[in-house]
Amino acid sequence: MPAETYDVRPIGRVRSPLTDPAQAPKQGDEGAPPAEIVLDPAVVAGTAGLRPGAEILVFTWLHQADREVLAVHPRGDRTRPVTGVFATRAPHRPNPIGLHRVTIADIAGPVLTVHGLEAIDGTPVLDLKPVLGPTAQR
Amino acid sequence: MPAETYDVRPIGRVRSPLTDPAQAPKQGDEGAPPAEIVLDPAVVAGTAGLRPGAEILVFTWLHQADREVLAVHPRGDRTRPVTGVFATRAPHRPNPIGLHRVTIADIAGPVLTVHGLEAIDGTPVLDLKPVLGPTAQR
Predict the structure, then answer these.
(1) Cystine design at B35: which of A94, A95, B16, B118 (Cβ 3.0–4.6 Å)?
(2) Nearest Cα to B94, choosing from B127, B135, B65?
(3) Do A21 and A94 touch, CB atoms closer than 8 A?
């Protein structure tokens, strides 16, 4: 049905001591070390208004994922029943977009230091968005 | 810096009475009408485990966005100072990925009826993920 495709162009990359997907925590609140988002200098103007202490959503492209997978054992636990990928946070899915809620610790030009990012070193970053409160802060 | 690009392949499309971006609410909690997500039949196996009543995140490709924009007046309000797109939820940004938190009302094969989706009719859908609680429900 949906015939056309679109190209995503990374705006930067993750720099992290995490290098092995098997060793990385499955979610950022499960012990991820501090990491950096190193932006392409061409997009730095897009960070105006971001501040240390703010929570943001980081969108990544999970470049090592298997895009053909449609069902998995949640969290790789074979005792759990096979579930559709859209009902899980498994990296494997047709469009392997990762969503990470992190806190900005520091901003220095194109480099954002963040807490709570479980993506591995080198992961392409696609977008950053502010976390929305229930009301106005948009 | 990040030279390579990746292709996103829509898994479905939004079917909605909203057709004009200028008329659509800026967020789903601002009065979006019920809408449908019509999936490609090839990916329906990925929905196993989704249930009516569940909250999910819908990732879309905002195909009418301007990808060259790096700074905007938030919510199009010219009385607000120009802000980097990564500090706003503006659709215009280098990778115009939309994030929508919706509630599933019904599932019928490849068609999910949802509440709270403010995307316009025809918007490509890239991914669905469950909303995570603070703990286990993954």
Answers:
(1) B16
(2) B65
(3) no
| CA gap B25, B48 in Å, rounded | 30
pTM comes to: 0.91
- Check if A28 contacts B (Cβ < 8 Å): no
Structure tokens belonging to residue B29: 């909690």
Q: What is the pLDDT of residues B109-125, one digit of tens each?
A: 999 999 999 999 999 99
B102 in A contact zone (CB under 8 Å) = no
Smallest Cα distance from B128 to chain A, Å:
5
* pLDDT value at residue A135: 42
- Please state, in angstroms and rounded to a whole number, the distance separating the CA atoms of residues A86 and B102: 14
Interfacial A residues in 41-80 facing B (CB < 8 Å): 41, 43, 45-50, 56-57, 59, 61, 63, 70-71, 74-75
